[in-house]
C-alpha cells in the first residue's frame, strides 16, 4: 500500500506535536475554491485522537483497536460575512481527561473496551474479581453526536454560545457510544462537562447497552433508541435475543430493530469476563437467521410483528419507509435499507496494525478475507405489515444486494428524507486500493448504480449532506468530508457538489487529523437534521 499512505491519519500519539492533534483554540484554515454560503454553521466530528500513551511506569500503553482510541471531538466553524468569502476555523479536544490521566499513572486501563487484547496470564481469581469491581474511570464515549438532545437539561447562560460573531443555536452537545451513557460537551470549547446514564431519562432504562446510532423523528425531533438489559433472559424491554446492535431503523409509524448475527454469549456475562465486546461475540453462524422486530411508535401497541432473513451483519442502517402496494393499497410493506456484511470479519480487521499502510498487518487481508470486510448496500422488504400476525414469524425479502465495488459504509442521506422514500445514499468506499478507505460514493437505489469521487492517496471520512435551502431535488446540496492527503501528511475539509461529486472548495489544515467516525452539521440558518 506504498502508493496510498495513510499512517498520518492513524498513528497519532498523545505526545505528538500539537499541530492539529489537540487544538483547544480556534485556528483559521486556508480556504480554496468557493464553498457556498449555505454551508455556514458548525460541523462536528468524532473519533479517536491518539492510541498510544507514555506512562509514568516507563512503558507505552496502546489501544489495539480503532474503536478503542482516545475519544475526541472536532469542530469546524464555517462563516460567511456579508460580501466576503467563506472562512473556516478549526478546534479539537480530547474528551477523556480522567481516562487519559489514569492510563498515564497506572500504565493500564481497567474499563470495558471494544477489543483490547488482555493479558492471557491474568489469574482466574483476578478475572473473577474484576467482574465485580467497578471501573474507576469514566468510559470512552465518542462515537456519535446528538445536538440539542430532547429530554436532557438545557439550562445554560442567558446568552447562547457565540461562535465567531454569530449564535450557533446549539444549546447542548452530547457524545454517545454502544452503552447506556452519554457525555455532555461544551458546544464551543469542546470541554467535557459530565456523564449521564439513560436511567436519568427513565428508571426502566437500566440496561448497560444501547445503540450508538439513535434515530430522530424528522417532524417532532423525538429520538428513538433501545436499551438492552442483561440477565438470564436478556431484555430489550420487549424481546430476549442478545446481540451487538449498532443502529436501528425508523419509519413514519414504526421502529424496526434487526437482531443480526453478532450474538453475545453467556447472556452478556462474557463482556464482563473478557472486559471487551469483541471476544464476547459468538463466531458468525450462517445457519442462524437474522430476526427483524417491528414496534409501533404511534399508538403504544408495542411489538407488532417479526420477520426473519438469512444471516448477515451490519453496522449502519440507512433509512426505512412504508410503501402501499400498487395492486392493493390496503397492504403496506416496510422497506429497509442498510450497509450489510457477509460475516463479522470487519470487526477483526480494524485493529490499528491492520490499518497502517506501512505495517504488515494489512497483508493478512487479501482475497476473500479482505472482500468479507467490504459492505454491500442492501434493501429488505418486510411485507404486509398491517396483516402480519403477532407471534408468527414472517419472511423478510432481500430485494437487492449491490456489488461491493459500488457500495459503501458510513452511509448518510439527505436528512429531510428520513422515514420516507429516498433515492441517494452517500458513503465511503473500499475498492481494495488502500489499507483503509479510498473514495466517496453516491449510490442511486433506483437503478443500483454509483458515481465515485477519488483522488490517489487521499483517504476520505464520512460525508455529511448539507441541503441547499433553495434546492428542489433530493440531491441539491453539498457533501462535507475530512480527507487525509497521505502524500503531504495533511488533512483538509472537502466540499463536494452532491449532484456530481465535483469539488467546489476545501479548507486546508496545517497537519493531519486522525481518521474519525461520525459527524453532524448544524446550519446557521435552517433546520438541524437530527440523529440519522
UniProtKB/TrEMBL annotation:
GO BP field: carotene catabolic process
Residues annotated for Fe cation binding in this entry: 213, 316, 518
Annotated keywords: Iron, Metal-binding, Oxidoreductase
Keyword Cell membrane included in the entry's annotation: no
Cofactor binding: number and manner: Binds 1 Fe(2+) ion per subunit.
GO MF terms held by the record: carotenoid dioxygenase activity; metal ion binding
Pfam families xrefs: RPE65 (PF03055)
Domain of life: Eukaryota
Cofactor(s) the protein requires to work: Fe(2+)
InterPro entries: Carotenoid_Oase
Entry similarity comment: Belongs to the carotenoid oxygenase family.
Protein name: Carotenoid oxygenase
Natural source organism: Zopfia rhizophila CBS 207.26
Amino acid at each position: 500500500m506504498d502508493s496510498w499512505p495513510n499512517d498520518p491519519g492513524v498513528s497519532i500519539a498523545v505526545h505528538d506535536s500539537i499541530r492539529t492533534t489537540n487544538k483547544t483554540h480556534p485556528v483559521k484554515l486556508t480556504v480554496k475554491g468557493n464553498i457556498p454560503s449555505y454551508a455556514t454553521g458548525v460541523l462536528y466530528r468524532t473519533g479517536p485522537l491518539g492510541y498510544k500513551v507514555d506512562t509514568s511506569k516507563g512503558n507505552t500503553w496502546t489501544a489495539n483497536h480503532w474503536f478503542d482510541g482516545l475519544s475526541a471531538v472536532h469542530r469546524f466553524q464555517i462563516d460567511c460575512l456579508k460580501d466576503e468569502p467563506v472562512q473556516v476555523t478549526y478546534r479539537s479536544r480530547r474528551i477523556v481527561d480522567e481516562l487519559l490521566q489514569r492510563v498515564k499513572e497506572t500504565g493500564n486501563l481497567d474499563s470495558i473496551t471494544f477489543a483490547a487484547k488482555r493479558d492471557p496470564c491474568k489469574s482466574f481469581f483476578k478475572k473473577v474479581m474484576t467482574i465485580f469491581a467497578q471501573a474507576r474511570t469514566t468510559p470512552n464515549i465518542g462515537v456519535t453526536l446528538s445536538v440539542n438532545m430532547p429530554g436532557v437539561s438545557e439550562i445554560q447562560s442567558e446568552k447562547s454560545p457565540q461562535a465567531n460573531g454569530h449564535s450557533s443555536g446549539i444549546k447542548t452537545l452530547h457524545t454517545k457510544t454502544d452503552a447506556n451513557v452519554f457525555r455532555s460537551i461544551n458546544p464551543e470549547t469542546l470541554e467535557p462537562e459530565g456523564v449521564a446514564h439513560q436511567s436519568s431519562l427513565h428508571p426502566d432504562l437500566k440496561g448497560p447497552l444501547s445503540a450508538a446510532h439513535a434515530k430522530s423523528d424528522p417532524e417532532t425531533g423525538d429520538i428513538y433508541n433501545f436499551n438492552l438489559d442483561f440477565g438470564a433472559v436478556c431484555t430489550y424491554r420487549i424481546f430476549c435475543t442478545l446481540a451487538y446492535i449498532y443502529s436501528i431503523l425508523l419509519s413514519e409509524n414504526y421502529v424496526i430493530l434487526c437482531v443480526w448475527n453478532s450474538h453475545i454469549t453467556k447472556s452478556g456475562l462474557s463482556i464482563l469476563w473478557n472486559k471487551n465486546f469483541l471476544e464476547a461475540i459468538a463466531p458468525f453462524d450462517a445457519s442462524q437467521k437474522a430476526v427483524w422486530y417491528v414496534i409501533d411508535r404511534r399508538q403504544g401497541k408495542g411489538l407488532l410483528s417479526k420477520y426473519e432473513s438469512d444471516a448477515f451483519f451490519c453496522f449502519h442502517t440507512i433509512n426505512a419507509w412504508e410503501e402501499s402496494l400498487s395492486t392493493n393499497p390496503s397492504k403496506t410493506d416496510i422497506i429497509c435499507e442498510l450497509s450489510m456484511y457477509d460475516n463479522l470479519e470487519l470487526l477483526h480487521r480494524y485493529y490499528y496494525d491492520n490499518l497502517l499502510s506501512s505495517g504488515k498487518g494489512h497483508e493478512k487481508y487479501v482475497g476473500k478475507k479482505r472482500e468479507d470486510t467490504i459492505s454491500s448496500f442492501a434493501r429488505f422488504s418486510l411485507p404486509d405489515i398491517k396483516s402480519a400476525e403477532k407471534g408468527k414469524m414472517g419472511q423478510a425479502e432481500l430485494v437487492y444486494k449491490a456489488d461491493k465495488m459500488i457500495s459503501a459504509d458510513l452511509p448518510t442521506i439527505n436528512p429531510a428524507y428520513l422515514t420516507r422514500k429516498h433515492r441517494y445514499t452517500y458513503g465511503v468506499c473500499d475498492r481494495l486500493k488502500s489499507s483503509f478507505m479510498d473514495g466517496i460514493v453516491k449510490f442511486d437505489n433506483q437503478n443500483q448504480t454509483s458515481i465515485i469521487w477519488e483522488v490517489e492517496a487521499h483517504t476520505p471520512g464520512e460525508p455529511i449532506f448539507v441541503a441547499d435551502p433553495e434546492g428542489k431535488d433530493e440531491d441539491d446540496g453539498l457533501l462535507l468530508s475530512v480527507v487525509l492527503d497521505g502524500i503531504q501528511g495533511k488533512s483538509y475539509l472537502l466540499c463536494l457538489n452532491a449532484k456530481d461529486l465535483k469539488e467546489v472548495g476545501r479548507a486546508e489544515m496545517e497537519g493531519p487529523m486522525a481518521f474519525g467516525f461520525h459527524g453532524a452539521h448544524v446550519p446557521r440558518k435552517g433546520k438541524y437534521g437530527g440523529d440519522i
